[in-house]
Amino acid sequence: MKRIFLAASALTLALSVPASASVPPPPPPPPDGLPESHDGYSTEALWYAYLYWVRGETAVRRQAAFDALRLPGWSDDPDAWRTELEGPSYAAISWWIPHGNLFAFEEVCPVSAGYDNPEGCLWRYRSAFFTTQAQDVHAIAYETFDLAVFAERLRQQGVAPDAVGHDFRSDFGLAAEVHARLDAMIQTRDIREDVCPGVRDGIESLAAISLPLSSYGPPAGTPPPPPQAPPSGDRQTLTIPVGFYPDMDVTVTIESTGAGSMNALLSGLIGPVNACIQAAQD
């Protein structure tokens, strides 16, 4: 059986990019009707210290949700499944809040099959992404921002007003509440090929690709690349551990910011998975 092993991080949204320019819009201003400061603390400084923390936590919570789906390589539970091989993985990290996603393919095996040439192993797909928009994330900040309480908290912590600069970030004691609300906006996928044959189809599609290891550019007759995708703030990374070299650690890393060639690779890899998901929803 031909195998390609990959590692990284999503799903139907993996092929989508914002249609607007690559520079994201400015963050929203502080809530209306507040004074310029409270007890010496600038309202604007406290607002952006909190807002930027909330925005940053979208990436943190998405990664946490994705990591929570990881299966260990060993388990003493005979009814459990474990990871035998790590396959292709993908990460799209975006300037756009909360755009971006993570997905990975792994070959998993039933613990009951043992660890020496186990039988019954299947390819598995896992992903994590947000199903919401930037305004929904900003709404969390607007609904929980409390100027007087935030200023008093910093005062008690010994943080002087002039210490709250452009790089200052704080959860102001609201991490648990904000994390719960962000987590409710994240969707995860955990699909094996016995439920969705497209999981294996995507792996086989990638395994069938011939990759010339040449520094001289494409050979004569190579077709032109696909059209460039619309500009986006995504930094895309597709990581492929190559199982063809069992005695060497070989990894192919492909990076892009919305190139048509990257989307063509992703289409072959996760297109069959998305087709299964769509069919199940219809």
From TrEMBL:
Task: Look up the domain of life of the source.
Answer: Bacteria
* Positions of region (Disordered): 214-236
User: Could you say which residues form the signal peptide?
Assistant: 1-21
Q: Which UniProt keywords apply?
A: Signal
Biased amino acid composition, Pro residues:
220-230
Name of the protein this chain belongs to: Uncharacterized protein
What organism is recorded for this protein?
Hyphobacterium vulgare
- Recite the lineage of the species: Bacteria, Pseudomonadati, Pseudomonadota, Alphaproteobacteria, Maricaulales
